[in-house]
Write a structure and sequence with these properties.
438 residues; Outer membrane efflux proteins (OEP); 2 domains; two-stranded parallel ribbon; 10 helices; elongated
Length: 438
């Protein structure tokens, strides 16, 4: 009879407390989440816009080699005393119309165009690295939040297990009370414990929902109603050494590559600034004509004047910098300061990366040791609880002793789950830094 009562209680509590699951709900793997986030995350999209801006800057630098062509036209009206065609002044109305077109072709601009292209290419490469670094940050955040959801689910499962046992105990106490074998106080204590366990189930279930919402927000999902994730295969991970992870990360970590590229960009900017010391040579050409009328006189027709006044010109201009109020010198100094700043930024990035990897390594080792120790402790605690439960069923243990043993088992289970997911998280962070893979 007691066995049937236990089975019925477990079935009833499972039906009442298990959250409703829509069978049409889409289950996402970690790879699905990362892939979707890298396409829809706003910070990644912002970096993509920076790349497009860098590509436009490169195109603009290449266009500096092209000539510039301009056309102009104008007409003036003079009333009263004005200049005549004979270069004298007289009181008469005059009109003057003129047009022209000019061409300017840079022949040599102190190597500034070539150096500007190098700066634009280097800057574009840096933007590409920064785009990948933004993806890396999003990936790490997704991994962390994904494991947080799985952790919340395991805590919820443990809470359900505790509630199942408490529900069985309430049914058992009712049967004993009806048989006159226990006082009513024992049943009240059991019902009180059941209420506490139900609260724990509700809290853990809400923690799952909150964790899923936070993960969905990282993914920029428009609707999280049917969003759920799949468990991760739990192999025994091997923790790589901090030194091996750091050495590998220095070769391919995108934040480090971006900082290194900024040094190259600064070097190209120094060369570009020094272009101000070099002379410039340009080719110029143009055409034009004009039409002039004087009031009270017979004027040549428009077409005739356009033909007679038509003119062309070609020329070469040379500009030699002698003194520009130290503008070029100050630009070179500023570029050198940016170069030093880029070097310091790389040193800071390397230091921060080493600290992050070293911290993740020691946290992983500590979590692994705690997890392995918790497995042994958990096994012993389960045996202790089983013994206490048996004594309690035989009337040789008090309800307080039974609840203490049950709560102690729940506490050890939660501690084991926590250390396990801490272990998994730090291990995946190390693997990602080492190989850029999930």
């Amino acid at each position: 009879m007691m066995t049937n009562l236990k089975q019925t209680a477990i079935l009833a509590i499972a039906m009442l407390t298990t959250p409703h699951v829509d069978m049409r709900a889409e289950t996402w793997t970690l790879e699905n989440c990362v892939s979707y986030a890298l396409t829809h995350n706003l910070s990644v999209k912002a970096r993509q816009l920076n790349i497009e801006s860098g590509q436009l800057q490169l195109t603009e630098a290449k266009d500096r080699f092209l000539p510039s062509l301009n056309a102009s036209a104008g007409e003036s009206l003079n009333f009263g005393r004005g200049l005549t065609a004979n270069n004298t002044y007289a009181d008469r109305n005059t009109t003057n119309f003129q047009w022209g077109a000019s061409l300017q072709l840079p022949l040599f601009q102190g190597l500034s165009e070539y150096r500007q292209i190098k700066v634009a290419k280097s800057n574009l490469q840096q933007l590409l690295y920064e785009h990948e670094a933004a993806k890396d940050n999003v990936t790490l955040n997704i991994i962390s939040q994904y494991l947080q959801v799985l952790y919340a689910k395991e805590v919820h499962a443990s809470a359900l297990s505790q509630l199942s046992q408490t529900t069985y105990e309430v049914g058992r106490q009712k049967a004993l009370l009806e048989a006159g074998k226990v006082p009513e106080a024992d049943l009240l204590d059991a019902e009180s414990q059941k209420a506490q366990d139900e609260l724990q189930v509700v809290t853990s279930e809400n923690d799952i929902k909150v964790s899923l919402v936070e993960l969905a927000n990282l993914l920029q999902l428009p609707d999280v109603g049917n969003f759920d994730i799949a468990p991760i295969p739990e192999d025994e991970p091997i923790i790589p050494t901090a030194e091996s992870v750091f050495n590998a990360a220095m070769m391919h970590n995108n934040s480090i590559l971006a900082a290194s590229q900024s040094i190259k960009t600064a070097e190209h900017n120094i060369s570009l600034a020094k272009s101000g010391y070099i002379p410039r040579l340009s080719f110029n050409a143009g055409i034009g004509s004009s039409y002039y009328t004087v009031g009270g006189y017979v004027n040549d027709p428009f077409s005739a004047q356009m033909k007679h006044n038509f003119s062309t010109y070609v020329g070469v201009s040379l500009s030699i910098p002698i003194f520009d109020a130290f503008s070029t010198r100050n630009s070179v100094r500023q570029a050198k300061l940016q170069h030093l700043s880029a070097q310091l930024q790389l040193d800071q990035q390397s230091t921060d990366l080493y600290k992050t990897i070293q911290l993740a390594y020691y946290q992983a080792c500590g979590a692994r040791e705690k997890y392995l120790a918790s497995l042994s402790t958990l096994e012993k605690t389960r045996r202790s609880f089983a013994a206490t439960q048996e004594k309690y069923n035989l009337g040789r243990a008090t309800p307080a002793e039974f609840e203490q043993a049950k709560n102690n088992l729940f506490r050890i289970e939660i501690s084991s789950i926590q250390s396990h997911y801490e272990y998994l998280l730090r291990h995946r962070i190390l693997i990602f830094y080492q190989s850029n893979r999930l």
